[in-house]
Amino acid sequence: xxxxxxxxxxxxxxxxxxxxxxxxxxxxxxxxxxxxxxxxxxxxxxxxxxxxxxxxxxxxxxxxxxxxxxxxxxxxxxxxxxxxxxxxxxxxxxxxxxxxxxxxxxxxxxxxxxxxxxxxxxxxxxxxxxxxxxxxxxxxxxxxxxxxxxxxxxxxxxxxxxxxxxxxxxxxxxxxxxxxxxxxxxxxxxxxxxxxxxxxxxxxxxxxxxxxxxxxxxxxxxxxxxxxxxxxxxxxxxxxxxxxxxxxxxxxxxxxxxxxxxxxxxxxxxxxxxxxxxxxxxxxxxxxxxxxxxxxxxxxxxxxxxxxxxxxxxxxxxxxxxxxxxxxxxxxxxxxxxxxxxxxxxxxxxxxxxxxxxxxxxxxxxxxxxxxxxxxxxxxxxxxxxxxxxxxxxxxxxxxxxxxxxxxxxxxxxxxxxxxxxxxxxxxxxxxxxxxxxxxxxxxxxxxxxxxxxxxxxxxxxxxxxxxxxxxxxxxxxxxxxxxxxxxxxxxxxxxxxxxxxxxxxxxxxxxxxxxxxxxxxxxxxxxxxxxxxxxxxxxxxxxxxxxxxxxxxxxxxxxxxxxxxxxxxxxxxxxxxxxxxxxxxxxxxxxxxxxxxxxxxxxxxxxxxxxxxxxxxxxxxxxxxxxxxxxxxxxxxxxxxxxxxxxxxxxxxxxxxxxxxxxxxxxxxxxxxxxxxxxxxxxxxxxxxxxxxxxxxxxxxxxxxxxxxxxxxxxxxxxxxxxxxx
Length: 727
Ligand code: ADP
Ligand code: MG
Known about the structure:
By secondary structure, this protein is α+β, with helices and mostly antiparallel strands. The chain has 3 domains: 31-175, Glutamine synthetase, N-terminal domain (Ubiquitin-like (UB roll)), CATH 3.10.20.70; 186-580, Glutamine synthetase/guanido kinase, catalytic domain (Creatine Kinase, Chain A, domain 2, 2-Layer Sandwich), CATH 3.30.590.10; 595-723, Up-down Bundle (Four Helix Bundle (Hemerythrin (Met), subunit A)). It is built from 27 helices and 17 strands. Helix 18 (482-509) crosses helix 19 (514-528). It is globular. Magnesium ion is lined by residues 214, 341, 471.
């Protein structure tokens, strides 16, 4: 009966932290299991090495002969590290990573055997595409899928398997994964940003988008989690009364890390070091048992791979420490949820961060150019950004007054706001010598100084400038960063193309000097994008009203938000930038809607099961004890018994009422689900959102009330206080 919960508690109290050996410096471990530049130089011929480098830097193609050479070197390196298998490692649209291991081992004629791996196996594989979501692409094109090597993300060894990062595409070329569109978006932003950089520095030949994610998560003891079917099946607690002590004392944030957790973190960080994931910071987060981990930022494609890899490694390492790691955005109602801040910037191959002001007025004008263009792009495509972070689980977090609202806005701080205000007044057309000097000395020239003491921070903003980068904070902790990063880099690419066109036009037709033309275009962008800038409290109701007046979108649910992904505007953006064609965009939309519906459907089934088969029987059992008690009192006190049984009778009635409510609500919910299942696509998702999901809170309310009434010794599910405070 309730055995599981109490056994679990006993088990947890007896747990000891696992000792983690740390006899090597982190710097010595770093990248040991990565086929990085150092390893490549050691194992590869000069030409082969150079061809990989050219592929990484300029997207040059690698011919088959060179691929054979690279494969042999990669195999030799992998075997020297004890690897026995290899796999193409990819990120299908399921949200998880996928791998299919093949042994290097092959038999040869005459009964012998050897380890083999050639260019063909390195470059391409054919996993069964029909087993992964494809949004109808396969049916339309009768196409098989294949994975293709991405040389820009180095191969690595995990366990005894050589993992080769790859894209996953249909034979007809449509992307079936998260990486392929991201690579195309990064290509687009590189081309566009490099062209704009030429205004300021002719030596720039490549621009990389950079990403530094911050991963939040919860750790729950495996035994305690196992006594919660909801957590096991859906990643979150579908019911459970808030504990007397939650996070209201703020005693967890940055507090000392519990010993068992610390040993998990050490173990995890050692694994990360070997895999070349440059994790740097760790700390407690706001909620009890919530933590955060962040790396040093990297080139965006690599950073996305590293985040996906990290999440996978975290699940594995946490098992060793008897923890279940929860990436759900809102595992516990009433307690802060988890996000994944995406710090983003652009950086040139000459080593300049384009969102960091420089020493000369020209460098600062470059900063302003990228800064203002970013704001303009977010202004023009705010709804698409909102769509890029939409998921069933993130819906719980956005707008819950602890995370950014569902309204996208940009925070830049008061000092930069006043710089933009001044730039709004720049004269149209040619500038007078005085105005030029003024801009140089008093406005643009002052930016580095004002940024030095830029202490403005606004935790409520979904897209905030933080000194030398923008921070997209609304990304969910469960999300693959590729989605939002694809959108962000695509809209920036489009924006920079437009900017370049407009500046060139002013130079050609109006005969303006370069910097005059730039000031002229920026002035118009600042005016046009004003409505996206917001410095106030993003959690407040006032902002919702104000945002509505400004015409900003406020799509609170995923089915609503996702529509922006298939709008005419979005499709033409993706097509124009060569990131996705219409078929790819629509396929993804279909997959995301379906995923949404499935998630709600599963939650609904699990909740119905727990409420009826776990909660109600226990409530009845306890009620029977009360009835026995009342009967006994009647025997003793006769007609006078009510004086002594008042409380009990009241409880008996209340329990009956809650049971009745739960029963009828669950029945209604099942009916709604049946109706919903007859619908398809958008209608299906809408119905799951608006017809099925509203029952969750109602059913939960009555279950949570019962939790407060029923004898603690009978309650079958681990309680919040146990999940969150037992270590
Ligand atoms: P916080 O936002 O918590 O105050 P920091 O400002 O120190 O912390 O940085 C947060 C994250 O920003 C780090 O993970 C870091 O890797 C990332 N970051 C710093 N500079 C850049 C950059 N140029 N591009 C992308 N990410 C960056
Ligand atoms: Mg941050």
